[in-house]
């Protein structure tokens, strides 16, 4: 097993996740089996209880793990399926060690950060690195490990110490450290500054790790003199300094790394049994990146949500839309609309913001209402759904978006004026969305319906079934506490809102479709989590096809994309 540790310096959010994913993609293109582990030094057990404004979206895995969004990057880039134990947190490690101490495994010894916590980290990494993540179920050959945060953070120290020890346990030919740093360019001088990188590498060395590669992030391409300066002051060869400037799309990052000789370096440094040239997989990435940059036709989608101030809150939704747009040769114009700004209360408080939000919604080619929790902004989402339904705008509702589509239909088509979800109004006379039987309102963490579940189509006359290739069932990932009330579904079906998919028992409603509408679809699951750059998610693809007016032609061709 070969281990590649990716650390970061100067600032967090520098792009370690994309760089780790890109390195994995390059090695996979050379015919190697690659897995990935993300280490988050926070004390939370997992990411499940975070607000999206803390660390971005919560990504859900097949096994129900609620994890950091970087695991989403690994899955999309490498086309693999990870597990909850591929995300290590301080909370998980300490819980594991404390449980062992309570069990008496340490035989009366004093339990300390060194060696007990550091040993637990190393043991976890070695065990998880062996777990198959590809469809062929073979053991991986390379494990890419990303250490979250920045070097010098107090909460990350036990992990740095663990890897300082681990480099000797694994041996030099099996362990490689990549340090990602920032090269800022102040507007005042326009000069690219190397001092932050020098200080960051010095701090890393002081903690016992020496970088084999220094990946320098910058806004613009870095000059050769800067590369030579970093090489000299950071005690590495010039070819060990890699530049990654801001690019038009993340699809370009693996190509930038490959162009700077990273395959040849890894082959020598880790004694890898590979050729110097990448295979067809990286050529596909190159073609995809070139195609992305040449797109001329634009499709605009309005994303109506409540976490619109930070794009990472809907990272997988954005990627799923982007994959679908690229598949049909359109450039995506994603317009984020804060759902509260569509509400009447905003018109009274700030009429300009209210009219701007509605202007965005009206000019969009399609409307998407993603998942979420809590009552804030729900009235605005209901307004957007009503607009999509009455104006026959292509619409996709995901999780809460589907539930609110049912609420909107009940209020405006069934005339149940107080129809609501018990999440927002526990005393409503028409509870069209209710608690799941297994929902425990006590603990918040890990109490939802999570992970990959089967959805069975109950009719052949379904747009989504056709988009999925006319399969009898699909398996997608879930993350929800509430569901459509199954006792009331017949009322909706009589009026044209069809529940075309349900769970294997037939009691949970999974997919809705509205009759006599170009595309009005709601799904209880989260299809964005399984979207891949070369395998777009069918519900999102359907939205883009309908928004560009090409859905019927696509269905008539037997769900084949035009060349």
From TrEMBL:
Residues covered by the Glutamine amidotransferase domain: 310-539
Pfam family, one: CTP_synth_N
MF terms (GO), sorted A to Z: ATP binding; CTP synthase activity; identical protein binding
CC per GO annotation: cytoophidium; cytoplasm
GO BP field: 'de novo' CTP biosynthetic process; pyrimidine nucleobase biosynthetic process
Protein EC: 6.3.4.2
Signal peptide (from-to): none
Protein's UniProt keywords contain ATP-binding: yes
The protein's enzyme class: ligase
Entries under NCBIfam families matching the protein: PRK05380.1, PyrG
Similarity comment text for this entry: Belongs to the CTP synthase family.
PANTHER family linked: CTP SYNTHASE, CTP SYNTHASE 2
Protein known as: CTP synthase
Species of the source: Zosterops hypoxanthus
């Amino acid at each position: 097993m070969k281990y590649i540790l990716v650390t970061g310096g100067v600032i967090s959010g520098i792009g370690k996740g994309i760089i780790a994913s890109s390195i994995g993609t390059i090695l996979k293109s050379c015919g190697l089996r690659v897995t990935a582990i993300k280490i988050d030094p926070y004390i939370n057990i997992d990411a499940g209880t975070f607000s999206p404004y803390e660390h971005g979206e919560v990504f859900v895995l097949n096994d129900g793990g609620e994890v950091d969004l970087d695991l989403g990057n690994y899955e999309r880039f490498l086309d693999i399926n990870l597990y909850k134990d591929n995300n290590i947190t301080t909370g998980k490690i300490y819980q594991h060690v404390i449980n062992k101490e309570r069990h008496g495994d340490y035989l009366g010894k004093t339990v300390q950060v060194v060696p007990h916590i550091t040993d637990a980290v190393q043991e976890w990494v070695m065990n998880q690195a062996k777990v198959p993540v590809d469809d062929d179920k073979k053991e991986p050959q390379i494990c890419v490990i990303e250490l979250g945060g920045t070097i010098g953070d107090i909460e990350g120290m036990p992990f740095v110490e663990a890897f300082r020890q681990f480099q000797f346990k694994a041996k030099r030919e099996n362990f490689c450290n990549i340090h990602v740093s920032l090269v800022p360019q102040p507007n005042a001088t326009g000069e690219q500054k190397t001092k932050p990188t020098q200080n960051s590498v010095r701090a890393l060395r002081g903690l016992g790790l020496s970088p084999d590669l220094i990946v320098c992030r910058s806004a613009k391409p870095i000059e050769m003199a800067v590369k030579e300066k970093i090489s000299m002051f950071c005690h590495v060869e010039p070819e060990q300094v890699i530049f990654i400037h801001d690019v038009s799309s993340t699809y370009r990052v693996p190509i930038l790394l490959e162009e700077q000789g990273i395959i040849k370096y890894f082959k020598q440094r880790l004694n890898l049994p590979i050729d110097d040239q990448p295979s067809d997989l990286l050529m596909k990435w190159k073609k995809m990146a070139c195609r992305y940059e040449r797109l001329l036709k634009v499709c605009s989608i309005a994303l109506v949500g409540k976490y619109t101030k930070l794009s990472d809150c809907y990272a997988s939704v954005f990627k799923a839309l982007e994959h679908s747009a690229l598949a049909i040769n359109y450039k995506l114009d994603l317009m984020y609309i804060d759902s509260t700004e569509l509400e009447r209360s905003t018109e009274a408080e700030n009429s300009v913001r209210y009219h701007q939000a509605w202007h965005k919604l009206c000019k969009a080619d399609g409307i998407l209402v993603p998942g979420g929790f809590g009552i804030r902004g729900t009235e605005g989402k209901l307004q957007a759904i009503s607009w999509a339904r009455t104006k026959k705008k292509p619409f996709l509702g995901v999780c809460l978006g589907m539930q609110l589509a049912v609420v909107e239909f009940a209020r405006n088509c069934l005339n149940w004026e107080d129809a609501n979800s018990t999440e927002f109004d526990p005393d409503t006379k028409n509870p069209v969305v209710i608690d799941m039987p297994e929902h425990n309102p006590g603990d918040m963490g890990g109490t939802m319906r999570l992970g990959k579940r089967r959805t069975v189509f109950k009719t052949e006359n379904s747009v989504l079934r056709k988009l999925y290739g006319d399969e009898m069932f699909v398996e997608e990932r879930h993350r929800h506490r509430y569901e459509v009330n199954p006792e009331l579904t017949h009322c909706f079906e009589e009026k044209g809102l069809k529940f075309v998919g349900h769970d294997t028992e037939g009691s949970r409603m999974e997919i809705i479709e509205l009759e006599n509408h170009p595309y009005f679809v709601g799904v209880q699951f989260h299809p964005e989590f399984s979207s891949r750059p070369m395998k777009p998610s069918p519900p999102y693809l359907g939205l883009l096809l309908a928004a560009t007016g090409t859905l019927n032609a696509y269905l008539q061709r037997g769900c084949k994309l035009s060349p």
